[in-house]
Amino acid sequence: MPNTFGSDAAMETNDFVAFIIFWVVCLPLLLLKPESYRVPAIVSAVLVLMAALAVFLWAIVKQGNGGPLFSNPEAVYGVGNLQGSQLAWLMVRCINSGIGGWAGGVNFSRYAVHPGDQVYGQIFSIPLCLLGSNILGIVTTSCARGFYPNEPLLWKLYDLLQAIQRNEAPVARAAVFFAAFAFFLSQLSVTVVACGVVGGMDLAALCPRYIDIRRGSLIIAVIGICINPWKIMNTANSFISAISGYAVFLGPLTGIMFADYHLLRHRRIKLSHLFLPQTGSDYWFWHGLNWKAPVAWVLGVWASLPGFCASVTPASVVVSDAWVHVYYLSWPLSVCISALVWMVLNIISPAPGIGEVDDSDVFGTFEEFQDPEDTEKEKEEEPDHFGKSPTHTPSFERNYA
């Protein structure tokens, strides 16, 4: 397909056509209920694991070793051997980027039945999967540089598959097709479940009167085009910077939530008040907004913004090394700043209901593993706390009605 886009478009015509096709395929899937994704997601996870291992093993066998990224990385990148502070700050940046990539894992904790259900997944499954995928990608790219020396570094999987088609025998096209199809199914699952549906849930929680989960997912799909994701994916550096951006903007949220729940309230909250959208709730504040939160968030973000802007657009934004190093520390620094600001603001202006809990076990959560029959008896004996607020937050089923 001839390319009709200019050099500054960050993509070619065939890339744009493929993007639109993928986007159109995703749209009808966003209309399904989340429980419908369970089996397809498991199937796609198994298929993509098999495809990734197959490509990895093929690259190792073909190259015979780990490739030039391990044996002679200085020659590949054209830089000297990093030592001292340069190496240290590079490691700090990579660690911070990894934290930014992991920060989205909390999205899936909402499906936990009990408060501790997500602990083992976050401690073992997420690090294992991310570390494993990183190792597979780095080793495969290194091997590809060894047996395809005339190709650029093939960090992107679709670039690697295209290089295989160009450099291998025609019979390799079948293998490329099946591998590409497995990765397509995986990307489809991730896009619909982790981006569309999760974003739809967030928007539905913000504006339940006007937005349900389906509408929220479609809004996210439109935003997905407006942000020009091909610009983010244009270079590996921009992609790493975008991943690090998660740490810049999510770090302050983590600091606020940690300080409020663990340090300020000591894990004692009124569950019934969380579902009262009116002035009678301790968590209503001003029209549902606590003014301290955006203040603490902004103060946590601002310190990392100069370095973040320079990292994303190095050609137009230049800052000192000090600001760049602050950006490399964005997640732990923003967590600490926002947590400290949150505690100070609440000392100056205390919030209502700090350290208080419900007088009765409204939702049967005082004892996490109590007998279900005892829970039902307690609910029958307890008064209706929502009698005066029949329009509380819509239920999950109502959002999909």
What would you note in describing this structure?
There is one protein chain. With 401 residues, the protein is mainly α. 63% of the residues lie in helices and 0% in strands. The chain is built from 17 helices and no strands. It has helices at 13-29, 38-63, 68-71, 73-77, 84-102, 119-147, 157-167, 172-206, 213-226, 229-232, 236-264, 292-302, 305-312, 321-328, 330-348, 372-381, 396-399. The chain is globular. Residues 382-398 have low confidence and may be disordered.
* Major pleated sheet: none
Tell me the overall shape: globular
What is the count of β-strands? 0
Rounded Rg: 25 Å
**How much β-strand is present in the residues?**
under 5%
User: What's the mean pLDDT score?
Assistant: 81
Structural class: mainly alpha
Low-confidence stretches: 382-398
What is the first-to-last residue Cα distance? 43 Å
Percent of residues in helices? 55-70%
Give a concise summary:
The protein has 17 helices and no strands. The chain has 401 residues and is mainly alpha-helical.
SSE diagram, text form:
Elements: H1 13-29, H2 38-63, H3 68-71, H4 73-77, H5 84-102, H6 119-147, H7 157-167, H8 172-206, H9 213-226, H10 229-232, H11 236-264, H12 292-302, H13 305-312, H14 321-328, H15 330-348, H16 372-381, H17 396-399
Core attributes:
single chain; mainly alpha
